[in-house]
Amino acid sequence: MKFLQLATLIGAALALPSDPDPLSPRQTCTSPKLRKSWSKATSAEKTAYLHAAVCVTTKSSRLKNNANATLHDDFAYVHALLSSPQKIHDFAGFLPWHRFFVQVYEKALQECGYPGTAMYWDWVADSPAPSKAKVWDSVTGFGGNGVSTGDNGPRLRVIDGPFKDFRPLYWNTDVSPHWLSRDWLPAQNGEPEISGANYSPARMAEVNAQTTFDGFRQALESGPHAAVHGGVGGGGRGLGDLGFQNASPNDPLFFLHHTQVDRLWWLWQQQDPQTRTFAYNGFHNTQDGSQGPTVMLSDILPMAGLAPDGIVKDYMDVKGGKLCYTY
After folding, report:
1. pTM exceeds 0.85, yes or no
2. Considering Cα of 324, then 250, then 241, then 170, what sign does the dihedral take?
């Protein structure tokens, strides 16, 4: 009889769901804040966000690498610093690191008096006509495409919107002051401008069909994510800040773009939350381009002095660890 009771207890224990990782956080936030689409935010919410984003471009640098640097320049510098060699792209850490990076920027906005949360540009919804998206509005948006003005080298200067007078300090980690630049790719062969066909609902359906974390990450990072960078920033021409991977946070629109990337990852996780919330696989990069060690939830997410470093496990669940928001 005792043997049967013991066997029953063992069987019940084996039936319990497995812990995805012993380091996984147990707590769940009770009042997650909603991150909104820019197109669905009110005019007051957009104005508050833009005022704070302009404020970030005027606040003093935390890194103190250059006397002329601002807090916004810090974000571009750290992104470039960690991009060479690759510590934040082209491997599993791309998604949790940028989730963390957006959170650091969100806090910078809040330090400038912004009462809300990060917002996203839903470029999937806008993919049929990206140039008509509300994010480009000159009053309630980020300004539009750049133009050749003769005072910005080969780059195309943004001449409208709240950032028309913004001069990012860095190009890569080099000091290279310039006017904020954009270079929209034109429509081609009947396809939308700004490379819209590459982040259409049909294209995202292909990405979402991936069943492993790193399969999804690769399909999203090298597909729609990269297409938006290239479409807004000029692709291989490199005449817009968003188009040059290392310098891309120079454009404040970067953070709406990457909040959308984060949202798409969250949506993929929600397809099977028990399995996918802490799904994490792949390999680290090495400086010589060879395959590095396997990634782990205990891996460090470096922030190079912009904020204290994080740990991957704390950025897998938007309602747990160091996070408390939803979409």
Report:
1. yes
2. negative
